[in-house]
């Protein structure tokens, strides 16, 4: 028996191990760092869309997908915070003059941006 064979039908290569041909499977999964948004999205799909989550795992695409969601959500969050600060007139001058008012306004802005990201990206896919 040959040590290695190839199946032209499915394109897989096999190696002979203890009298049995086993497929040479190579994980194509990446190893990106996943941030807070990617982890929140993972928790959501794990609980509410388990078949989709399993499908991503089997296809070795889970890490890549979580990374893409994390990057998009982070960019959206940062952009929203900046836009909301400009719309509401929150400046460094306010921070210097009235720190508590600035903190209160920034907490409101970050909460608002966070909710938008949850509704637009995390809970809709």
Description of the molecule:
Helix content is 63%, strand content 11%. With 125 residues, the protein is mainly alpha-helical. A three-stranded antiparallel beta sheet has the order 1-2-3, with no helix packed on it. The protein is rod-shaped and about 80 Å long.
The gist of it:
By secondary structure, the chain is mainly α. It is built from five helices and three strands, in the order E-E-E-H-H-H-H-H. It is rod-shaped and about 80 Å long.
Individual helix count? 5
Strand content: 5-15%
- Straight-line N-to-C gap: 49 Å
Largest beta-sheet details: 3 strands, antiparallel
How do the strands and helices of this protein lay out in sequence?
Blueprint: E1 4-7, E2 12-17, E3 20-23, H1 36-48, H2 50-58, H3 62-88, H4 92-97, H5 99-122
Antiparallel strand pairs: 1-2, 2-3
Helix pairs in contact: 1-2, 1-3, 3-5
What are the key terms here?
single chain, 125 residues, mainly alpha, 3-stranded antiparallel sheet, 11% strand, rod-shaped
């Amino acid at each position: 028996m040959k040590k290695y064979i190839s199946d032209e039908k499915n394109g897989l290569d096999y190696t002979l191990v203890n009298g049995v041909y086993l497929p040479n499977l190579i994980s194509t999964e990446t190893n990106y760092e996943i941030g807070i948004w990617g982890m929140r999205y993972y928790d959501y799909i794990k609980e509410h869309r388990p078949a989709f989550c399993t499908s991503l795992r089997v296809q070795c695409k889970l890490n890549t997908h979580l990374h893409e969601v994390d990057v998009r959500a982070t960019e959206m969050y940062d952009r929203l915070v900046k836009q909301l600060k400009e719309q509401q007139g929150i400046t460094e001058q306010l921070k210097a003059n009235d720190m508590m008012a600035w903190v209160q306004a920034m907490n409101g802005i970050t909460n608002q941006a966070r909710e938008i990201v949850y509704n637009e990206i995390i809970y809709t896919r």
